[in-house]
């Protein structure tokens, strides 16, 4: 890189961000340094691992999958974490490839790859790599990462295997604790090798003939070859790093293919110089002040190897191609090539800065906003773990944003073969739909600008915005939600149950509202209690309250919806719970005891609008056939209708719940397959979110008209609805819990 140069102020920021401190087993000493290679993988020297374990420094013996303790100086005192040894390249003699002698001045091999349990948070990030060359000015740091510990050296003779490093008689010198750290070229903003060893003067009176401040490092070219030999290289480097290092990789070809569209868009050196200067300012790079422009080849190299360079250039170019179909086509081609690299990313520097600021601010106000919006916007995507929780900390937003950038298309149809809307923009629209005022408007304007820069058709963004609006409207009209947990114990009378009741707050948390949960109550008493709580809750508005009753697996046919909660002094003679509330059932016991059910339930629940309905009747031979269907052709099914005899229904129902099916409808009064038609008037195949209301309408008619013998029961496991707490007994030793 010649026209684009690293800033003098922060040319080493990337290297120090990737620096790793490897601790000795006593956690008090620094055994050496390392560098973040890619994601969870860290690179260091084998002799640093030996030093950490208290073994002889150049021992070739593989210690196996041991765990070491590492920390990242860039995280400013964050707790250390464990890293497992994943690959081992033993130190070996250069001449006979055997053990290294005690008097050896240099050796080969000596590499180790460590693997973290999870990716480190920003600002820790992998470095870019380039080949080591004679004459490079490079910098190294002590493993502890102290800013003052930098040592500046110059690469002397380099044979593509090792390079000798000479330092001036000022500042720090490469010494113990530097091994395994990156050798960072300030000019190229890239690492070119690892610190390996130093050549010391003999134990005698110092002479002017002695070697002074000379150390040596292993060149990146050799590092790559060594790791490829032990099978650690393919997953260790992003494609842009392999290409930048001059090795075989797709990005070299991608760089060459970028030259065509760049020449078409920026063939004029004056125009190219103006856009390149603006791009350099965004990337904090320095440029010449003599009015020159970079070559097209150099610009292509920068786009392939520098994070966010391509979208930042596209942001500058997009206004100039408006109304120019051929120019727009070339820009689209350039962006498509960028998606084949890992350096480009989705957002420009400015776009990323704006969105990050907005999402961090909104997350401080509503920690559940981003997980809620992402879950609704991307029902078929395996979201990052941080988005699967109900709340998100503001400091986790950068990592989440980086993850969401990985998905480029949402899979929905788009007109005229235009680009698909990126998943991140869809999430932004759902966040905006849940936000009010200027914040929502600013987010929508942001996504509109990004969509225009990407060449996305306006109708595609409009459809997703409408989807988000409809989702938000449903979410804001959820109405009152009441959780009920019922159970009974061995000493309780047969018709009495322990009951706890919670009211769900607006933020999704639950508050206990019932008194004396230890007192056994009759069904009508429980119905009156639930009716009093659900009917007196503020904020009900025009919505029918949802009453979600948790029961044991043996009580799924309990007629809770028929329990009459009318008091003696009421004018109306009867008030079954199923008439006035969306009374649905839940079975936490099956959820807790089934492997993987939580993830399956959430995935199916989020896909309920698009998934089909499975009818489990006599055509399904047995429970194994049901399991096969739910694992294959109906893997996304959220709604199952169960028919058959009571014994068969109970069996199939439990397997549905164990497979994470959130919506199950059946007629608890049915005696066999011939009674299946009795559920038809509930509209079991109609719009899924309206099913509880259709069941309520049917119940009102059925309670008043004995000609309607069906008694529909509905399991409705809203994945966002909390499970009630376990029932607490005053003296558990005196009573034995019994299923109801």
N-to-C CA distance: 74 Å
Annotation field: number of helices: 23
Provide the gyration radius in Å.
33 Å
User: Residue ranges: pLDDT <50 for 5 or more in a row?
Assistant: 234-250, 726-740
Instruction: Give the tally of β-strands.
Output: 25
Report on the structure:
The C terminus is likely disordered. 34% of the residues lie in helices and 19% in strands. Strands 15, 16, 17, 18, 19, 20 and 25 form a 7-stranded mixed beta sheet that branches. A 6-stranded antiparallel barrel has the order 2-3-4-7-6-5. The chain starts with a strand and ends with a strand. It has 740 residues and is an alpha+beta fold. It has 23 helices and 25 strands.
Give a topology summary.
Elements: E1 5-6, H1 13-18, E2 19-23, E3 30-38, E4 41-44, H2 46-53, E5 67-71, E6 81-92, E7 108-116, E8 137-140, E9 151-158, E10 162-167, E11 182-185, E12 190-199, E13 214-219, H3 220-229, H4 239-244, H5 250-266, H6 269-282, E14 285-286, H7 296-305, H8 309-317, H9 325-338, H10 349-365, H11 369-377, H12 385-388, H13 397-404, H14 423-433, H15 437-454, H16 458-476, E15 481-489, E16 496-504, E17 510-512, E18 521-522, H17 523-536, E19 546-550, H18 577-580, E20 582-586, H19 588-593, H20 597-606, E21 613-616, H21 623-631, E22 639-642, H22 646-658, E23 663-667, H23 691-704, E24 712-716, E25 737-738
Parallel strand pairs: 15-19, 19-20, 21-22, 22-23
Antiparallel strand pairs: 1-14, 2-3, 2-5, 3-4, 4-7, 5-6, 6-7, 8-9, 8-11, 9-10, 10-13, 11-12, 12-13, 15-16, 15-25, 16-17, 16-18, 23-24
Helix pairs in contact: 5-7, 5-9, 6-8, 8-9, 10-15, 11-14, 14-15, 14-16, 21-22
């Amino acid at each position: 890189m010649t026209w684009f140069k690293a800033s003098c102020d922060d040319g080493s920021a990337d290297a120090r961000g990737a620096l790793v401190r490897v601790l000795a087993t006593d956690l008090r000493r620094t055994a050496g340094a390392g560098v973040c290679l890619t994601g969870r993988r860290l690179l260091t020297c084998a002799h640093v691992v030996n030093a950490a374990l208290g073994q002889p420094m150049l021992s070739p013996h593989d210690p196996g999958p041991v765990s070491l303790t590492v920390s990242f100086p860039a995280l400013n005192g964050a707790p250390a974490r464990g890293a497992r040894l994943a690959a081992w390249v033993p130190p070996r003699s250069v001449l006979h490839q055997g053990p290294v002698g005690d008097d050896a001045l240099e050796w080969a091999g000596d590499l180790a790859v460590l693997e973290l349990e999870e990716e480190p948070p920003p600002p820790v990030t992998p470095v870019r790599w380039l080949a080591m060359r004679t004459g490079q000015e490079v910098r190294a740091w002590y493993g502890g990462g102290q800013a003052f510990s930098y040592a500046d050296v110059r690469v002397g003779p380099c044979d593509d295997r090792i390079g000798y490093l000479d330092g001036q008689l000022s500042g720090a010198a490469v010494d113990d604790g530097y091994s395994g750290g990156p050798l960072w070229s300030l000019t190229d903003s890239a690492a070119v090798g690892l610190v390996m060893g130093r050549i010391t003067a003999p134990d005698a009176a110092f002479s002017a003939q002695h070697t002074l401040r000379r150390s040596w490092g292993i060149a990146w070219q050799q590092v790559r070859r060594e790791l490829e030999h032990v099978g650690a290289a393919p997953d260790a480097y992003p494609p842009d790093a392999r290409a930048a290092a001059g090795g075989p990789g797709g990005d070299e070809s991608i760089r060459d293919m970028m030259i065509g569209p760049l020449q078409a868009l920026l063939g004029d050196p004056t125009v190219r110089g103006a856009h390149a200067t603006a791009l350099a300012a965004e990337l904090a790079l320095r440029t010449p002040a003599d009015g020159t422009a970079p070559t097209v080849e150099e610009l292509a190299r920068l786009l392939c190897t520098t994070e966010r360079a391509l979208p930042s250039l596209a942001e500058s170019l997009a206004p100039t191609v408006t109304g120019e179909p051929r120019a727009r086509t070339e820009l689209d081609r350039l962006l498509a090539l960028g998606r084949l690299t890992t350096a480009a990313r989705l957002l420009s520097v400015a776009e990323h800065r704006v969105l990050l600021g907005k999402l961090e601010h909104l997350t401080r106000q509503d920690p559940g906003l981003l997980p809620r919006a992402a879950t609704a916007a991307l029902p078929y995507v395996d979201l990052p773990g941080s988005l699967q929780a109900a709340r998100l900390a503001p400091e986790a937003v950068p990592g989440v944003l980086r993850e969401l950038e990985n998905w480029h298309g949402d899979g929905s149809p788009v007109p005229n073969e235009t680009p698909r809307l990126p998943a991140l923009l869809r999430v932004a629209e759902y966040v905006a739909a849940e936000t009010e005022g200027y914040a929502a408007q600013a987010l929508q304007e942001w996504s509109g600008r990004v969509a225009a820069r990407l060449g996305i058709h306006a109708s595609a963004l409009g459809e997703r915005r409408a989807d988000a609006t409809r989702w938000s409207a449903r979410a804001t009209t959820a109405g009152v939600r009441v959780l009920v947990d019922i159970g009974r114990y061995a000493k309780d009378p047969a018709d009495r149950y322990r009951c706890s009741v919670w009211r769900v707050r607006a933020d999704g948390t639950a508050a206990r509202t019932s008194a004396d949960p230890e007192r056994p109550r009759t069904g009508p008493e429980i119905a009156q209690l639930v009716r009093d709580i659900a009917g007196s809750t503020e904020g009900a508005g025009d919505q029918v309250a949802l009453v979600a009753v948790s029961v044991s697996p043996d009580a799924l046919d309990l007629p809770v919806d028929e329990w009459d909660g009318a008091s003696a002094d009421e004018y109306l003679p009867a008030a079954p719970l199923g008439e006035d509330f969306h009374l649905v059932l839940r079975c936490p016991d099956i959820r807790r005891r089934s492997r993987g059910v939580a993830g399956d339930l959430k995935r199916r629940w989020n896909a309920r609008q698009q998934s089909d309905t499975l009818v489990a009747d006599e055509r399904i031979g047995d429970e194994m056939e049901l399991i096969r269907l739910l694992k294959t052709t109906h893997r996304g099914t959220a709604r199952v209708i169960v028919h058959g005899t009571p014994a068969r229904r109970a069996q199939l129902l439990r397997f549905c719940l164990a497979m994470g099916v959130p919506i199950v409808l059946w007629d608890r009064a049915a005696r066999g397959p011939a009674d299946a038609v009795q559920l038809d008037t509930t509209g079991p195949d109609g719009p899924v979110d309206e099913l509880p209301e259709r069941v309520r309408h049917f119940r009102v008619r059925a309670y008043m008209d004995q000609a309607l013998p069906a008694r529909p029961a509905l399991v409705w496991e809203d994945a966002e609805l909390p499970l009630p707490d376990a029932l607490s007994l005053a003296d558990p030793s005196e009573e034995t819990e019994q299923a109801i």
